[in-house]
Amino acid sequence: MRAVWKGTIGFGAYAIPVKAYSATTDRASGLTQVHLTDGGRIQHRRYCEADGTEVPPGEVGKGFPLPGGDVVVLTDDDLASLPLATAHSIDVLSFVPMEQVDPVYFARTYYLEPEVAGTKAYVLLSEAMQQAGRVMVVKVALRQRETLAVIRVRDQLLLLETMLWPDEVRAPDFPFQHEDVDVHVGEVRLAARLIDRLAGDFEPENYVDHYQSALNELITAKAEGGELARPAAAVQNAGVTALLAALQSGAEIHEGGSPVERARGAAEKAAEAAASAKRAAQRKTETVD
Q: Among the listed ranges 163-177, 194-208, 252-266, which one has the minimum average pLDDT value?
């Protein structure tokens, strides 16, 4: 794993040096957006709505729109100049019981590994937190943004759980919350007994992503059945044919004939070559299908 952050857990004048690693990964389906007629990849490009031109990565920045329509433009240098006290230090705020922290606040999880010089202090902190039965509430800056977080212990390892700020959690407001719903005691007891029958320990390895398994089987079946599209080969072959035709036309123009006749002949041959290349590409695509 590659460390995504490096700094210290600060306790006044003393600090434990640590490195943070992403504890989870987003497993995508592997599917991409393609053109259904030929299988070509769909590209997403950045365009400026003001002048309609495509914007290169080097000219992309951030902006804050004002009520009147003006925009305050901020560059990466502007943002880098902002003071960020927690950029390289985890600021310890308090220790609280874990059950008081609603999981709705959790965002991402990171493993914290101690540097060699801070290993003993790291293990001491881990043991003390387990005995106290509390987690550490902290502030830390990751990816140029300060965030609230908790540090908890899992198998003696300290885990950093980044959190949402309170104003980022939406307050629920649904009609049934304001209604007087009549639920009979007998119904509640029956539901509780049914829950007890399904009760057990949480073992993650017992749960399977059946959709991903079915998707992989579908892709394999289509591949083995020859249901494939090869857009790149068809486009490249067509491009080669068109290029050779253009070179041939240029050579013939150079060799002789009146300017008008040469131009007319070159145009006709170029059009014929382009049409031939297009037909060849279509035939190859149909053959693959």
A: 252-266
Distance CA 138, CA 125 (A): 14
Read off the pLDDT of residues 108-141 as tens digits, 9 standing for 90 and up.
Answer: 999 999 999 999 999 999 999 999 999 999 999 8
> Which SS3 state, helix, strand or coil, does residue 160 take?
strand
55 alpha-carbon distance from chain centroid: 22
**In contact, 220 and 30? CB cutoff 8 Å:** no
Q: Tokens 């249901």 belong to which residue?
A: 227
Distance between terminal CA atoms of the chain? 41
User: E strands along the chain, which residues?
Assistant: 5-11, 14-22, 62-65, 71-74, 89-97, 106-114, 134-142, 145-154, 157-163
95: nearest Cα among 135, 133, 129, 127: 135
β-strand partners of 47: 54
Helix/strand/coil (H/E/C) assignment for every residue in 261-286: HHHHHHHHHHHHHHHHHHHHHHHHHH
Pairing of strands 106-114, 157-163: antiparallel
DSSP lists the bridge partners of residue 197 as none
For residue 21, count CB atoms less than 10 angstroms from its CB and return exposed for 0-12, middle for 13-18, buried for 19 or more: middle
At residue 72, φ and ψ (nearest 5 deg) are -85, 115
- Predicted pLDDT of residue 275: 66
* Distance from the Cα of residue 86 to its chain's centroid: 24
Q: 263 with 253: CB under 8 angstroms?
A: yes
d(CA 190, CA 84): 55
Distance CA 106, CA 137 (A): 12
